[in-house]
């Protein structure tokens, strides 16, 4: 790709999360290249799906192909790799400036009026930006910071409500935690939201969150007609644990803080990371049965 070539095709191509995962895998692979077979195994997707995304990336000039004997290997050209940072939105490469921070504080202060102060809102936003930036190894999107902050402030609101003894009609507060918050906890949360509706308030977190929810997990949920929504991996914080009625952990050991008055469950569920799609489906079905059992026990679902 010429150094002066327009970036629009690359921007469009990398707008899809699966194609972003393909490029990251190629950059991190030994020798900087991989075959369709290796990509299919890593992403836990069908080969035609991976081939489609590679075709789009090839057309945009983001990847190159090289026949080696009977196999075709794909890689990210050096000049493209050096420019990848330019393809990220400017907001993702710069810290939130004072003007935007003030606006975010004002918006969330209005949303949670009477529950938290402006000082608390500002603290939560700045801390959330730092936590998400540490997870990604760079800067955090303002939209992600706003969503994460709003979820944490809602958790604070819920914990204050709990201290005042919530009325019986209040939704059950559920927190699902795994290591990367990219597989098991997202599966459980999506299914719980789908089944419980307004009767539950569901949050997720990870003890060592990944950069994005695994494509195979999204695909497994789509097969059931269960939406993931705008979810993304988030760090585990005390406020979301304190707000929960039930905390479900899956593989994160002792990373979850313990607060009195909460119910803690540990589900021995396999990690879908780097597993073939059939294995991901089996994990999804295991979690689905566990979530249904929990919601029935909590009188959210009728047995």
Automatic annotation (TrEMBL):
Keywords: Arsenical resistance. SUPFAM superfamilies: Phosphotyrosine protein phosphatases I, Winged helix' DNA-binding domain. One of its GO terms (biological process) is response to arsenic-containing substance. GO terms for molecular function: DNA-binding transcription factor activity. PROSITE patterns: HTH_ARSR_2. Residues 1-96 form the HTH arsR-type domain. InterPro entries: ArsR-like_HTH (IPR011991), HTH_ArsR_DNA-bd_dom (IPR001845), Phosphatase-like_N (IPR048716), Ptyr_pPase (IPR023485), Ptyr_pPase_sf (IPR036196), WH-like_DNA-bd_sf (IPR036388), WH_DNA-bd_sf (IPR036390). CDD domains: HTH_ARSR. This is Metalloregulator ArsR/SmtB family transcription factor. It comes from Microcella pacifica.
């Amino acid at each position: 790709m010429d150094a002066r070539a327009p970036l629009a095709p690359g921007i469009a191509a990398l707008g899809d999360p699966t194609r972003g995962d393909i490029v990251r895998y190629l950059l991190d692979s030994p020798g900087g290249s991989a075959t369709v077979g290796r990509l299919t195994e890593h992403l836990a997707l069908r080969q035609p799906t991976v081939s489609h995304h590679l075709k789009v990336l090839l057309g945009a000039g983001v990847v190159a192909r090289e026949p080696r004997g009977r196999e075709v290997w794909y890689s990210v050209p050096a000049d493209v790799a050096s420019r990848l940072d330019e393809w990220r939105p400017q907001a993702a490469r710069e810290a939130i400036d004072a003007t935007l921070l003030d606006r975010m504080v004002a918006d969330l202060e209005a949303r949670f009026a009477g529950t938290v102060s402006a000082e608390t809102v500002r603290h939560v936003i700045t801390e959330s930006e730092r936590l998400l930036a540490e997870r990604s190894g760079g800067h955090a999107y303002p939209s992600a910071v706003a969503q994460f902050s709003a979820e944490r402030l809602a958790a604070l609101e819920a914990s204050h409500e709990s201290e005042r003894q919530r009325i019986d009609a209040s939704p059950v507060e559920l927190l699902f935690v795994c290591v990367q918050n990219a597989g098991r906890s997202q599966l459980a949360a999506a299914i719980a939201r789908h089944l419980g509706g307004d009767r539950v308030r569901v949050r997720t977190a990870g003890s060592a969150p990944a950069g994005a929810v695994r494509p195979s997990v999204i695909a497994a949920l789509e097969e059931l007609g269960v939406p993931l929504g705008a979810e993304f991996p988030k760090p585990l914080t005390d406020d979301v644990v304190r707000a929960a009625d039930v905390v479900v952990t899956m593989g994160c050991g002792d990373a979850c803080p313990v607060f009195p008055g909460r119910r803690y469950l540990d589900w021995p569920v396999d990690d879908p990371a780097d597993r073939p799609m059939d294995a991901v489906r089996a994990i999804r079905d295991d979690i689905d049965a566990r979530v249904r059992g929990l919601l029935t026990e909590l009188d959210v679902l009728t047995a």
